[in-house]
Design goal:
six-stranded antiparallel beta sheet, 986 residues, Immunoglobulin-like
Length: 986
C-alpha cells in the first residue's frame, strides 16, 4: 500500500477551485525548508490534522511523507501527504500555479486523484485517494515483465498521460517509482504534473536514466519528453537490464517476440524528439495495436497446439512469433491504412465542422504518417490548418509557439530563422522570439483556415537591447479602426509606428515622479484644469491632487508613498491630469483611443479576457496574469482602467475595464471626468516613432446618441403586431439533466437542457438551487451581459459573482445559454443593435429561449412558477423591457446597467416600442457615470417610458460607472425581490 488511488475509475475529487494555487502561494512565500520540525513531531499514528486522523506511515512519495489516514467527516480512508517544500521550483511562480491547478483538475482512472489540499500551522498537505498494491519499481526487482503484461501496464500509463497531454499537463519525471500497480488490476500514474508544481524535480531536471536528451541539455520540454521516459520504462519491463543511468542508452530489443515492438520502442527513445511519437495519444494507439496482434497470434497458437506437449507448444509458439513478425507488421500496416481512410478522414471533416481544429489537426497528422501524400487528406488540410513560413529581422532568432488558451503548456520550439516553416491548426497562438543582444518579443496571432485570406509568411522584427525603452514594446502602424463597442463606427485613421508600455505604470515608477517634485513643477502640467466650467489657478489645482493624508500623490497613497508591498501594482487613484503630467515627466504621451485599441487587440478578447484580472479580489501585480495582447502588452484587459488622450465632451476616455468590473468592459466604451481619481483608474503611455500619424487620431470623439425626446413609441395596435412575432408553439420540452455538481456548500448546480422553440436546437441552462432550504424556490431567470456572445465555454459563467447573492438569499437561479452565446455561438458577436433581419431574428429567438426556460420552470416541482423574476445585466437590461412586455409569466424585473440604446434597431425589437406596455414592477440600477447608457440620454427616457405603475418602478443611480459593484448593488436587488416576491423561505 502506498498512496492515492480509486477502485475501478477516476476517484471523486473535491479540490476547490484555486485551492492548489492558494497552497502553492503559501509555500512560495514561506519556503519552509523540509517537511519541517512541526511535521516531524505531528506525524504519528493517532494525530489529528484538520478533519484527518493519521493511521500509519505507508511511505515517502516524491515530495513528502505519506500516511494512511481517515477522513472523519466522510468516513473514508485516504492518503495524507505532508508536502516537502525544501527545493523551491525553478520555474516562474505564475506557471507553477497554473500547472498545479491544471494537474489538480485531471480526472482519469489511470491518474491518482487529489481529494483536497490544506495548510495547517505545521505546514502544507495534500489528501489523495488511497491505493493498495505496489510500485512498478518493486515489481522490476523481480526481473523482466512478460510482454503481454508489460504492454498492458504501458497502455494504462499511456491512457493517463494522453488525458494529461490533451490538457497541457506534462509529467516531466516519469519513472517506475511513480507508476503504481493496484491490487485490483488498475495502473495509476502518481505525481502527474507535480514535478514543477511542488518543486520535487531533482536539481538536474529529472531522474537519471529516464531523462530525455532535451532535459539533459536544459532545453524546453514538451509531450515527447514523457514519451521518452515511457519508452525507457517499457524497455526495462521487456529486458533484463538493470535500472538505466544518466546518459546511458538502452540496448535494442532484439529477441524474436519483441522484434516489431522493439522498433517502436527505439523510436520512442530517439535522441531527436521530432522523430519520436508526438504525444502519449499516438503511443497509446500503437501499443494497443501491438496488444491486439499478440492476442490474435496467441489465440491462434493456443487453438492449434492445445494438445501438444509443453516443450513442443513452447517451440511452436516461438517459431510462430518469429515467422509472423513481418506478417504482423504487414497486418498492422493494413489495419492502419483502413483506419486512416475509413475512420480518420471522415472524423477530421466532422471535427473541423464542429470547430475542434486542434483535435482535427492532431488526427490529420497521425493520418499523414499512415497515408503520406494522399490527395483526400491533402484536401482536408486547408480546412483545419495553415502552413507558414516565419522570418525575423534580423535573422538567427529562435522561434517558439504554443496555444493561447494554454499558457501553462510547454513552448514548442520551431527552429531558428530565416525561413522556418510550420503548419498550425486554426486557432490563437502565443509567440516568443529570442536572439542574443535583442529584446525578447512576445506576440499573438490567429490562424485562419486556408480558405480565408491570410498571409502565409509571418515576420517579426526585433529591437536591439537599448534601442527602445525596456518597459515598452513596438506596435506597427497602418490604417486603423477602433475595435471598441460604441466607437466602432468611427472612420479609420492612419497611425505611424509607436511604442507602448508593456504594462500599466506601477506605483514604483510613479514614485519617481513624486520624489522628483512632480506635483510642484508647473512646466509638467501642460493642460488647463477645468472644474465646473472654470479654469483653476495653480494652487487650487494642487489642492485637488492629494493622497489620503493630504500629501501630494495619488488618492490611494498614504503620506506621499504607496502601501508596503504594492510597488508592482498599477498606480491608481490618479486623474487624467496627473497621468498627463507624468507623461511629460518621462517624455511620453497618453495613448489616443486609436492607439490603445490597436495595441489591445479586442479581436482576440475571447482569448485574452479569461486570462485577465476581472471580477477578482483586487488589483494584481502587473503582468501577473496571462492575458498578453497581440504585440506583447499585459493587462490592457482588466486590472486598472486606463486613461486615454481623446476627449468626449467634458470627459476623457478611460478604457480596458477594471478588476472590479464585468469582463465585457475590455472592449466597451467608457469616459469620465478628467478629475476623477477612483481606486481603479490607472494608465500606460506611448511614444510615437514617426510622423505618419493623422491628426484626426487625437481629436475629440463624440459619442452618438439618439434623441428620444423626438421619437415616439409604437401605438397599441402596432405593438400587438410586433408581440405576435414572439409567439411559439409549446411543444414537448424533452428536458434532460445533463450533469449535477454538489461540491459547493451554498448551492446545488444542475446542467439541464430542453428543446428550443425553433430550428430543432436545444437550450442548455444551469440551475442553481440553495442548499438546506425547503422548496419550492422563487426562481430568478438571468440574461447575461454581451461578453457571453464572445466566450465559447460556459464552464465559467459570466457575472456569477454578481448574481450568486440571489441564490444565497434562498432563491433558485436559472442561467440559460441563449442563442449565439457560449457553446451556441454563431456569427452574431456584437451586442449593439443593427438594422438587419439577422439581428431582429436573434432578439426574437432570445425571447423564445427565455420563454422555453420558464416552460422548464413550470415542469419542476421544486421551483415556484408563480414567482418568476427576470434579472438582466447590460445587454439583458437593455432588452428586459421587451422581454417583460411579451412574457406575462415574468412577475418582476431587475435591470442593471441598462437603458435605451443609442443606436437604431428594427422596430420589432426596439425597446422603445415595448417599454410603455410593461406592467410588471421594474427596478433599474445604474451608474451615474455610465457612458454607454448616460443618465439623461438613455436611463431617464427608459424609466419614464416604462408602463409599470408609478409606485412599482424604481430607478437607483449609484456613484459608479456602467455596472455598479456588488456591495452597492446587492441590497437594492434583494430588497426589490423581497418586496414583490416575498422573503425567500429559510
Amino acid at each position: 500500500m502506498l498512496e492515492p488511488g480509486g477502485r475501478g475509475g477516476a476517484a471523486e475529487s473535491t479540490v476547490r477551485p484555486g485551492a492548489i494555487s492558494a497552497l502553492l502561494e503559501e509555500i512560495i512565500r514561506e519556503d519552509r525548508g523540509d517537511a519541517g520540525a512541526g511535521w516531524s513531531r505531528a506525524l504519528r499514528p493517532g494525530a489529528v490534522i484538520g478533519r484527518f486522523e493519521l493511521v500509519r506511515e505507508i511511505g515517502h512519495g516524491g515530495f513528502g511523507v505519506v500516511y494512511e489516514a481517515r477522513d472523519r467527516e466522510l468516513g473514508r480512508a485516504v492518503a495524507f501527504k505532508a508536502v516537502r517544500v525544501g527545493t523551491r521550483p525553478q520555474v516562474g511562480e505564475e506557471r507553477l500555479l497554473l500547472e498545479a491547478e491544471a494537474a489538480a483538475r485531471l480526472s482519469h482512472p489511470n491518474i491518482v486523484a487529489i481529494h483536497d489540499v490544506g495548510h495547517s500551522e505545521l505546514g502544507p498537505y495534500l489528501v489523495l485517494e488511497l491505493l493498495e498494491g505496489r510500485a512498478l519499481a518493486d515489481r522490476l526487482e523481480q526481473g523482466p515483465v512478460p510482454v503481454r503484461e508489460a504492454l498492458r501496464i504501458a497502455i494504462e500509463v499511456a491512457k493517463g498521460l494522453a488525458h494529461a497531454h490533451a490538457r497541457g499537463v506534462l509529467h516531466r519525471d516519469l519513472t517506475p517509482g511513480n507508476v503504481f500497480l493496484c491490487d485490483d488490476g488498475f495502473v495509476k500514474v502518481l505525481d502527474l504534473g507535480m514535478a514543477h508544481a511542488f518543486g520535487c524535480r531533482r536539481p538536474n531536471g529529472g531522474t537519471p536514466g529516464y531523462m530525455s536528451p532535451e532535459q539533459r541539455r536544459g532545453a524546453p520540454e514538451d509531450e515527447r519528453t514523457d514519451v521518452f521516459a515511457l519508452g525507457v520504462i517499457l524497455h526495462r519491463m521487456l529486458s533484463d537490464e538493470p535500472g538505466p543511468k544518466l546518459n546511458s542508452r538502452p540496448r535494442p530489443l532484439r529477441t524474436p517476440e519483441h522484434l516489431a515492438l522493439g522498433h517502436f520502442v527505439e523510436r520512442m527513445l530517439d535522441d531527436d524528439p521530432v522523430k519520436r511519437p508526438r504525444d502519449a495519444g499516438e503511443v497509446l494507439t500503437a501499443l494497443t495495436s501491438f496488444e491486439q496482434e499478440l492476442e490474435r497470434v496467441g489465440t491462434a497458437g493456443a487453438q492449434a497446439g492445445s494438445r501438444r506437449p509443453l516443450r513442443t507448444r513452447v517451440l511452436v509458439t516461438l517459431v510462430a512469433i518469429l515467422l509472423s513478425a513481418t506478417g504482423l507488421w504487414l497486418v498492422h500496416r493494413e489495419r492502419r491504412l483502413r483506419w486512416a481512410v475509413e475512420e480518420a478522414l471522415p472524423r477530421i471533416a466532422a471535427l473541423a465542422d464542429q470547430g475542434e481544429y486542434a483535435a482535427a489537426f492532431a488526427l490529420a497528422e497521425e493520418a499523414e504518417r499512415v497515408i503520406p501524400g494522399d490527395p483526400r487528406l491533402a484536401r482536408r488540410w486547408p480546412h483545419v490548418s495553415r502552413a507558414f513560413t516565419i522570418d525575423t529581422s534580423p535573422e538567427g532568432a529562435e522561434l517558439w509557439v504554443k496555444p493561447y488558451a494554454a499558457p501553462e503548456a510547454a513552448w514548442r520550439h520551431l527552429g531558428r530563422s530565416p525561413n522556418v516553416t510550420t503548419r498550425l491548426p486554426v486557432g490563437y497562438y502565443r509567440w516568443r522570439i529570442e536572439k542574443v543582444g535583442f529584446a525578447t518579443r512576445e506576440a499573438v496571432s490567429f490562424v485562419f483556415p486556408a480558405d480565408r485570406d491570410q498571409r502565409t509568411t509571418l515576420r517579426f522584427a526585433l529591437d536591439p537591447i537599448g534601442s527602445i525603452p525596456p518597459e515598452m514594446v513596438r506596435v506597427p502602424g497602418g490604417m486603423v479602426t477602433i475595435e471598441i463597442l460604441g466607437l466602432a463606427q468611427r472612420p479609420a485613421v492612419r497611425l505611424g509606428d509607436f511604442l507602448i508600455d508593456r504594462t500599466e505604470v506601477t506605483n514604483r515608477q510613479f514614485k519617481r515622479f513624486v520624489d522628483a517634485g512632480g506635483y510642484s513643477r508647473p512646466e509638467l502640467w501642460q493642460h488647463a484644469v477645468v472644474k465646473d466650467g472654470r479654469v483653476l489657478p495653480w494652487h487650487e489645482v494642487m489642492a485637488l491632487f492629494r493622497d489620503r493624508t493630504g500629501r501630494p500623490g495619488p488618492a490611494t497613497w498614504v503620506s506621499g508613498d504607496y502601501p508596503d508591498g504594492q510597488g508592482d501594482l498599477p498606480v491608481t487613484g490618479v486623474s487624467w491630469y496627473e497621468a498627463a503630467a507624468y507623461a511629460a515627466f518621462v517624455g511620453k504621451a497618453l495613448p489616443t483611443v486609436y492607439q490603445w485599441s490597436h495595441a489591445a487587440g479586442a479581436w482576440a478578447s475571447s482569448q485574452i479576457v479569461p486570462h485577465s484580472n476581472f471580477e477578482g479580489q483586487g488589483l494584481a501585480a502587473v503582468a501577473s496574469h496571462g492575458g498578453v495582447g497581440p504585440f506583447g502588452t499585459y493587462d490592457m484587459a482588466g486590472n486598472a482602467k486606463e486613461w486615454c488622450w481623446n476627449a468626449n465632451g467634458d470627459a476623457r476616455y478611460l478604457l480596458g475595464g477594471a478588476w472590479n468590473e464585468p469582463a465585457y468592459m475590455f472592449n466597451m466604451v467608457d469616459a469620465r471626468s478628467p478629475l476623477a481619481r477612483e481606486a481603479s483608474f490607472g494608465f500606460r503611455l506611448v511614444k510615437v516613432l514617426d510622423g505618419d500619424t493623422a491628426s484626426a487620431a487625437a481629436e475629440p470623439i463624440p459619442w452618438f446618441l439618439r434623441d428620444y425626446a423626438k421619437e415616439k413609441p409604437a401605438p397599441r395596435e402596432l405593438f400587438e403586431a410586433y408581440k405576435r412575432q414572439y409567439a411559439y408553439d409549446r411543444g414537448a420540452l424533452d428536458a434532460r439533466i445533463e450533469a449535477v455538481d454538489d461540491t459547493c456548500e451554498r448551492w446545488r448546480k444542475e446542467k439541464v437542457s430542453f428543446a428550443a422553440a425553433y430550428g430543432g436546437e436545444r437550450v442548455v441552462a444551469y440551475l442553481f438551487t440553495p442548499r438546506h432550504l425547503a422548496p419550492p424556490y422563487q426562481t430568478v431567470v438571468f440574461f447575461p451581459p454581451p461578453s457571453a456572445l464572445e466566450l465559447r465555454s460556459s464552464d465559467e459563467l459570466e457575472m456569477m459573482r454578481m448574481v450568486s447573492p440571489v441564490v444565497s438569499s434562498g432563491r433558485a437561479l436559472l442561467y440559460p445559454v441563449y442563442k449565439s452565446m457560449y457553446e451556441r455561438g454563431d456569427a452574431l458577436t456584437s451586442p449593439f443593435p443593427e438594422p438587419t433581419a439577422f439581428y431582429r431574428d436573434h432578439v426574437i429567438e432570445w425571447a423564445q429561449d427565455l420563454g422555453r426556460s420558464i416552460d422548464y420552470v413550470e415542469t419542476r416541482g421544486d421551483l415556484d412558477a408563480q414567482r418568476v423574476a427576470l434579472y438582466g445585466v447590460c445587454l439583458g437590461a437593455k432588452l428586459a423591457p421587451l422581454f417583460a412586455a411579451v412574457e406575462d409569466r415574468i412577475r418582476v424585473g431587475v435591470m442593471v446597467g441598462g437603458g435605451l440604446s443609442p443606436l437604431a434597431s428594427p422596430p420589432e425589437v426596439d425597446a422603445l416600442n415595448f417599454a410603455p406596455y410593461v406592467r410588471q414592477p421594474m427596478l433599474m440600477v445604474n451608474g451615474r457615470y455610465d457612458s454607454i447608457y448616460p443618465v439623461n440620454a438613455a436611463q431617464a427616457p427608459l424609466f419614464t417610458l416604462l408602463g409599470s405603475p408609478p409606485g412599482d418602478k424604481r430607478h437607483v443611480i449609484l456613484e459608479a460607472g456602467h455596472v455598479p459593484p456588488n456591495d452597492l448593488l446587492t441590497k437594492e436587488v434583494l430588497d426589490w425581490l423581497d418586496h414583490y416576491l416575498g422573503t425567500a423561505r429559510r
